[in-house]
Amino acid sequence: MRIVITQNTTLDGRIEMLDPWFDPADQDEELAAELMRQTEQEDVLLLGRQTFEDFRGYWPQQTEDTTGVAASLDAADKRVVSSTLTDPGWANTTIISGDPFEAVRAMRDEPGRDVIITGSITLCHALISAGLVDLYRMFVYPYWQGRGRSFFPDGHPGTGLRRVEARAFSGGVTYAAYVPLAGLGSEQDD
Question: How many other C-beta atoms can be found within 10 angstroms of the C-beta atom of residue 60?
């Protein structure tokens, strides 16, 4: 399977939401359709504990969600990296309490479609630093935050990327997907 980080980000590359620039319920139809298209390519949703708890506290309560996101997340094969969580409290969830790198490498070796990681900044930064990411997806919102954690971890060496997909949406969000260039960030590169 392919390891894919999908993040919502500001124009200045911040993924940590310290200002109200992102609302999951406020998406234009084109953007919602793109998200569902990507979800159809997903076999596993991998989350860090905090993002998992945020999702678990929000999405199951969205009983009038017309986008299909709530139903899709409920049915998804969810895996949460946590050394403290013992009961996920959400259907179709497996807790990864051991080495997350070992678990991600094992998923990468399995046949199938994408393993998606979103939010989960600490986990994403660790996977980026370990060279375990095959595709970076960025949904850029027209907002300048000026503070907060970025898509790539502070101090991460320059990484060459090649854009493989791009699109602009009527609500002002732009989307681009990038793969790491050979030798710069993916341990699967030959």
Answer: 14
Question: Can you tell me the distance from the alpha carbon of 31 to that of 11, in angstroms, rounded to the nearest whole number?
Answer: 17
Residue with tokens 């708890």: 53
Q: How does strand 135-141 pair with strand 2-10?
A: parallel
CA–CA–CA angle 54, 58, 59 (5° rounding) = 115
Q: What share of the chain is helix, strand, coil (3-state, %, to 5)?
A: 25, 30, 45
The number of angstroms, rounded, from the C-alpha of 44 to the middle of its chain's C-alpha atoms is 11
Distance of alpha carbon 87 from the chain centroid: 22
Token readout for 2 is 């392919």
User: What tokens does 178 get?
Assistant: 């990038």
Q: Tell me the sheet residues that pair with 158.
A: none
Nearest C-alpha neighbor of 15 from the set 141, 128, 184, 175 = 141
Separation between Cα atoms, residue 54 and residue 185, nearest integer Å: 29
CA distance linking residue 167 with residue 177, whole number of Å: 9
pLDDT in tens, 10-29: 999 999 999 999 987 777 88
Say what the pTM is: 0.90
Q: Which of 88, 54, 58 is nearest to 70 (CA)?
A: 58
